[in-house]
Structure formats: structure tokens, C-alpha cells
Amino acid sequence: MNEKFVTLYRHIIDQERKYPKATGELSDLLADIALACKLISLEVNRAGLIDILGFTGTENVHGEHVKKLDVHAHDTLVSAMKASGHLCAVASEESENFIALDEQRMGKRITSRYVCHFDPLDGSSNIDANISIGTIFSIYKRVTKSGYATMEDLLQKGTRQVAAGYVIYGSSTIMVYTTGEGVHGFTLDPTVGEFLLCYENLKIKKRAKTYSINEGNYCKWDMGLRKYIDSLKEECPEKGHPYSARYVGSLVADFHRNLLYGGIFLYPADKKNVNGKLRLMYEANPLAFIVEQAGGRATNGRDRILHIEPKTLHQRTPLFIGSEEDVLEVEKYMNGKH
Ligand code: AHG
Ligand code: MN
Ligand code: MN
Predict the structure, then answer these.
(1) Ligand 3 centroid to 124 CA: how many Å?
(2) Which of 7, 8, 14, 191 shows the greatest Cβ crowding within 10 Å of its Cβ?
(3) What is the CA(332)–ligand 1 centre distance, in A?
(4) Is residue 119 domain-shared with residue 14, that is, in the same domain?
(5) What is the residue range of 23's domain?
(6) CA distance linking residue 158 with residue 135, whole number of Å
(7) How far is the centre of ligand 1, averaged over its atoms, from the C-alpha of 302 (Å)?
(8) 250 in ligand 1 pocket by Cβ < 6 Å?
(9) Position 210 pLDDT exceeds 90
């Protein structure tokens, strides 16, 4: 076993040691999330075999058909978080309101210190096509002092996140997380059931040659964005144009590729979705925390995602995220400065 054999838990503990006052709760919480995602990974990889595919016949708050795997991922995460005892509340894409977890542990009522937002299964429309999907999480310290969690604990702006990450269920299962000390990635080795360090202190390229957007919405975009996307397709060697188009339709997959290779992902507002489609609390904020820690940029076309004051659990935001210079460039087009 060589010294590079660093498990996720070993890495989390090493990060914890940088904070002498750390209680170890956040480390436990991250390990509990990783365990839940290992279980989800098992189901995702077996989905086709145990008929977990198909619809439950119910819809979530967004009126979207909920596939069984979404519900399974949600249930797995909530029960793991209940067992961990470190969370006073969880919020999930699959639950209209947040879930106040009753902290009863060892007979004493304990006031747990964290809250967590989840997208239990991102890219769920791709489940049946065996395209990469993922889980996204975002962790905050509660702001109320004790008792049951309130909405005040859940609706905090992104700069107050203490940790964020995602797990991508693809050709392999990879977990990427940050606690504000850089971005680190781990590949699940199913033979030993451990996430092993594969990317230490990931940094995203300042400018790249890939853009990721659903061009089917072109006619609904504002003119500035159309001009930007048109410019990426022109022959302009000094600007490195044309760029390559890559769009999986799973945010986690598109984001992960751009994090590793460089690139910009765009989900703008349009005439139909005036606030865009993606959700602030469990899609934009956690990925914005990660991309900024990796030296990238994430805005709504004007303001930093992490500065947005949330008003509701499922509020949507336009999202422009990835290589810093590319995000700055599209902002110029969006704000008429190009
Ligand atoms: P979710 O499956 O959690 O609802 O997220 C789906 C999102 C995101 O994964 C992806 O980037 C986007 O939907 C794709 O939307 P379009 O199909 O409109 O391009
Ligand atoms: Mn999603
Ligand atoms: Mn989802």
C-alpha cells in the first residue's frame, strides 16, 4: 500500500486537524454523506436490474415527474442524516419544506449545529439513458442557538457555507468536496468500498475552449447572450474560437468536466424561465463555492452567486459558472459592455 493511499476519511481528518478547536462533527457529517452516496451509487448502478426505474407516479414541488431513484436517493440521505445526529435540519429538492430532524441521542436532547441542502439526484431525466447523474450537497452552521431549526437556519447566503460537494455516478463514482481549504476529489474503489484521493487541490483553467449550454433555448435568450454564443462559433484564432460545444444535460457531469478540463457552463434566464431553471440553494451555491475555491467564477450574469440573499428554499437563479475569464466575457455581453 503506497503512501498515496489516502482515503476520504483520512483526508477529512487531516483537514480537521488544521482547526484545533474543531469538534469533529463536520468530519463525521461529511463521512455520513459519503456513506449515503455509496449506497446511492449501488442503486444507481443496479437500477436497470431491480426495476427501480420508471416513475413513482408522483410529482415534486416543481411539477416534475419524480423517478423512483430520486425518491430513493432522498430517503437514503435523510435517514443517513437522521442517524448522524449532527444536523438540525435538511432541505431537499424532493421535499417542499425543510425536515427538522429531532435530535434525540443517548437519551439527551442535543442541539445539532449544522443544516444541509441536497439535490439528491441531479440530472434525473438522464437516469434511464445511463448518462452520468449526481448528488449535490451544501452545509451551513445553524444560526439559531437551540431547539428546532427555523427557516432562518436554512436561508443563508452562499458565502456562509462551511462545506459543499457533489458525487457523480458515472463510469466511476467520484466525490468532490471543499471545506474552504481547496477542492479535492476521490474515486470510489468498489472492491474496498473506500473513496480514494485522486485530485488534490484542483484548480480550474482561467480560460478554456468549451462551452456548455442548451442551445435549444436560443430563441428565448436575450440578445447579449445570443451575441456571445454566436461569437464562440466564429473563426477567430486569436480568441481561440470556435470553442467546442459539450452538453450532457446533467449539471454535475457538465460542471465536473469543466472543473477538470476548463470551460464555461451557462443556464441563463429566458422568456420562459425568468429566473433560469437551476436552484440556488442546492445546485448553484454549492458548485459556486467549489468553483471559487478552484480559482473559477460563478455569477448570475452580474452578481456573485454566493452573495445572493435567499428568500425561499427552491428559488431559481441564472447560472454562469466555470473558467473565470470566460464567465467575465459573457458578463460583458450580458451587460452591454461588449
Ligand atoms: P434535476 O435532475 O436535479 O432536476 O436537475 C436537472 C437540471 C441539471 O442537472 C441540468 O443542468 C439541467 O436540468 C438541464 O436542463 P435542460 O434539460 O433544460 O437543458
Ligand atoms: Mn439538479
Ligand atoms: Mn435533482
Answers:
(1) 6
(2) 8
(3) 25
(4) yes
(5) 2-199
(6) 18
(7) 22
(8) yes
(9) yes
Distance 241 CA to ligand 2 centre (A): 30
Q: How far apart are CA 281 and CA 160, in angstroms?
A: 12
Claim to verify: residue 9 and residue 143 sit in the same structural domain: yes
Does 93 contact ligand 1 (Cβ within 6 A)? yes
Give the per-residue pLDDT at 3.
Answer: 54
Nearest ligand, CA of residue 267?
1
Determine the number of helices (DSSP H) and then strands (DSSP E) in the chain.
8, 17
Q: What is the pLDDT of residues 282-298, one digit of tens each?
A: 999 999 999 999 999 99
Instruction: Tell me the pLDDT tens digit for each residue of 59-115.
Output: 667 766 666 888 899 999 999 998 888 899 999 999 999 998 865 444 455 568 899
In this structure, is residue 204 part of a structural domain? no
DSSP class per residue in 27-89: HHHHHHHHHHHHHHHHHHHHTTTTT--SEEEEE-TTSPEEEHHHHHHHHHHHHHHHHH--EEE
Ligand 1 atom closest to the CA of 62, numbered from 1: 4
Does residue 146 sit in the same domain as residue 36?
A: yes
Which CATH number does the domain housing residue 240 bear? 3.40.190.80
What is the predicted pLDDT for the residue at 106? 46
* Average pLDDT over the chain, rounded to an integer: 91
Considering the domain architecture, whether residues 178 and 314 belong to the same structural domain is answered as: no
pLDDT of amino acid 1? 44
pLDDT digits (tens, 9 = 90+) for 60-69: 677 666 668 8
The residues placing their C-beta within 5 Å of ligand 3, an ion, are 93, 119, 121-122
Structural domains counted in the chain: 2
